[in-house]
Amino acid sequence: MSTIDSTNVYQQINETNQTSSSASASKAQEDSDMFMKLMIAQLQNQDPTSPTDTSAFMSQISTMSQVESINNLTTTMAAMSESMLSSQSALQASSMVGQNVLISTDKTLSNDEGDVNGMLSLNGNTDNVRLTVTNALGTVIDTVELGAFTAGNNDFVWEGSADDAGKEYSLKAEVQLEDGSYSRIDTYLENRVTSVTLGQNGIGMTINTAVGSTAMENVLRIGV
Fold first, then answer.
1. 203: burial class by Cβ within 10 Å (0-12, 13-18, 19+)?
2. Helix (H, G, I), strand (E, B) or coil at 45
3. pLDDT higher than threshold 90 for residue 3
4. Per-residue CA distances from 194 to 4, 122, 165 (Å)
C-alpha cells in the first residue's frame, strides 16, 4: 500500500484474468508432464522389432508447445495490464492532491472566507431544511433555516466569518416533516485532498483530508 501526496470494471476484469491465467498455466503444465511420462513409458516398452511411430507424439508435442507459448503470452499481458493499471491509478491519485472534493461526511474545515460549501441529498421535496453547525469542541455555534429544496442534490453554503477560516466544523442537516418534526439527511461537504492512499497493485483508493479519510466511492464531485 502506498500513499501519494492524487473500483472499477477494468480492475475486476484484470483480477479475474490474473487468477484464470495462473490456473490455466498450472493445468497445462500438469498435462504436459503427464504426456511426457506416458510417451517415455511407451518408448521404453516398445517392441524393438516394431518401433513405435512417433509422428503422433511429435504432433502432440508441437501442439503443447504452442499452448505453452500462448499461456506465457497471457501471463505477460496480465503483468503488463497490472503495471499499466498501477501507473494509471498513481497518475489519477497525484492529480487529485490539493483539489477540493465533495465527500459524504459531516466534518470539514471552513474555506479562506470562513464558509462551508456542501450539498444536500434529498429523496423528495421539502419546505425547509435546518442546518446545525458545531465546532471542534462539540459546541453548537449556529442553527440556520435554509428554506425549501427540491428532490435530488442541492448545493448550499454556510456563511461563517473570515476570522474563523480553516477551523473544523460538523454540520447536521435535517428536513422538516409534515408533523413539524425533523429527520436527518445525508450531507456532502467540501474538503481539500491532502493525500491519496493506493491499494495493492493500485486497486482501490482512499482519499485523505485534514478531517479524516474516506474511500474513493464516497466522493461525489471533484474540483468543487
1. middle
2. coil
3. no
4. 9, 29, 17
Same domain, 124 and 186: yes
Residue with cell 508432464: 33
- How far is it, in rounded angstroms, from Cα 85 to Cα 157? 38
Domain that holds residue 40: 8-95
Chain centre distance of CA 76: 24
Claim: this prediction has a pTM higher than 0.85: no
Considering the domain architecture, whether residues 119 and 183 belong to the same structural domain is answered as yes
C-alpha dihedral (90, 91, 93, 94), degrees to nearest 10: 110
Residue 105 domain flag: yes
Q: For all residues of the chain together, what is the average pLDDT?
A: 78
Last residue of some domain: 72, 95, 118?
Answer: 95
* Confidence class for position 10, pLDDT limits 50, 70, 90: very low
Stretch 166-193: mean pLDDT: 93
Q: Say if residue 120 is in the same domain as residue 217.
A: yes
What is the predicted pLDDT for the residue at 185? Answer: 93
Q: What is the pLDDT of residue 198?
A: 78
**φ, ψ (nearest 5 deg) of residue 45:** -105, 15
